[in-house]
């Protein structure tokens, strides 16, 4: 009797490819994103007020890398020349998103100049669910489950506890420092608002034109943001001057340059590492998003943020962290998982009836 081949059993090659693919994704996310948080903290510690320069470098690098996927060869009078692909989404929609994305990035990076620790930065940026829920309810008329409502309350409490835990170093009452810290918190709060508005607008764009245009969104949101930096040319010039004045350091991973005695301002070494790791992080998150559910993505990113928090507090700053910070971070992470899980459960009945 001939053997019956089962098409349901994946071959060894298929399993190996899947493992290799997800291994690469996890390496990009945990290696790239965690390293990005580390290099961001090193960069902002060296020059806390360099938020505009940092954002500009990130936007230029992302634009150049994303350009590769948006160029095609076209025949012009018998000669093939590189041209931009025809956008799948009207450019006017990207222009609105550009302004929101630019403001979000500037506000987040500028907050480091006001005594905001990286640990609070990580926790605070994870707390945008309250803003997203409010905007979704008032603008899009969305409704949320009891689990989602409870999860948002838990996240909000966690953000407040973690933020207040770092408001003042123990035993000090410096009014000026406390005022700077609260202004930094205000900047992060404004960033949550612009990020929430951008998320709703982006969701409407993807609903109308399809999610396959994420790479196009990545390219145009960064490309169209570059001219906006002209409005901050004076501050940008001052930040470049400060960066040029940092102690000089040898170029990393360049033995020949070291032997020749070539050095650069040390700020640019950290800045370059931050930009490169950000590109790896973006690549990993986009790969993961295209392969698994939103719940799985949220779970992975929550674990990634937890690892980044431990690296920042324990390994880089050689601290144990306060009880308020860790309890607040735990509340944010548990609430994030609950919110995402509650959202996926609400979508299941609609998927079945379709």
Helix content: over 70%
Task: Give the helix/strand class.
Answer: mainly alpha
Major sheet details: 2 strands, antiparallel
Note the run of SSEs as H and E: HHEEHHHHHHHEHEHHH
Calculate the mean pLDDT score and round it.
Answer: 80
Could you tell me the strand content as a percent range? 5-15%
Shape designation: globular
Question: Cα distance, first to last residue?
Answer: 43 Å
Radius of gyration: 23 Å
Spatial order of strands in the largest sheet = 1-2
Q: Count of helices?
A: 13
| Contiguous uncertain segments of 5+ residues | 348-354
The number of E-state strands comes to 4
Overall number of structural domains: 1
Can you give me a brief rundown of this structure?
Helices cover 71% and strands 5% of the residues. The protein is mainly α and 354 residues long.
Structure description:
The structure is a single chain. Helix 3 (91-110) packs antiparallel against helix 7 (175-209). The chain has one domain (34-167, 180-343). The protein has 354 residues and is mainly α. It has a two-stranded antiparallel sheet. Strand 1 and strand 2 form a beta hairpin. It has 13 helices and four strands. Residues 348-354 have low confidence and may be disordered. The chain has helices at 12-46, 51-67, 91-110, 118-125, 129-138, 146-165, 175-209, 214-223, 233-244, 255-259, 266-289, 294-316, 323-353, and strands at residues 71-76, 79-84, 248-250, 263-265.
